[in-house]
Sequence to fold (96 residues):
Amino acid sequence: MFDSSTEQTIEGVVKEFQWTNPHTWIQVNVTGADGKVVEYSIEGNSPNGLSRQGWTRNSLKPGDKVVLKMHPLKDGGPGGAFMSAMVNGQPLGGRK
Fold:
């Protein structure tokens, strides 16, 4: 499903943060070079695991500017597995 040998960085605006079990999800709108907006779905760790790193259900809010590092989907689709994040210029959990 995810290409763990590859890292990809995307920059966009948080549409939604789903604080759900067994995994959290981050929906991010990314504007491409052509001006088109593509929605990415990023699968994160469990709420329990993220809580241990200092996250809360309010760590990401709609409208937050985010730079995410992820392992992309193997099929090249707009999504991936969460690695790390910078939110409004500040680091947020995960690996750096």
Summary: The longest helix spans residues 47-52. The two ends are 23 Å apart (CA to CA). The chain is about 5% helix and 50% strand. Helices lie at 47-52.
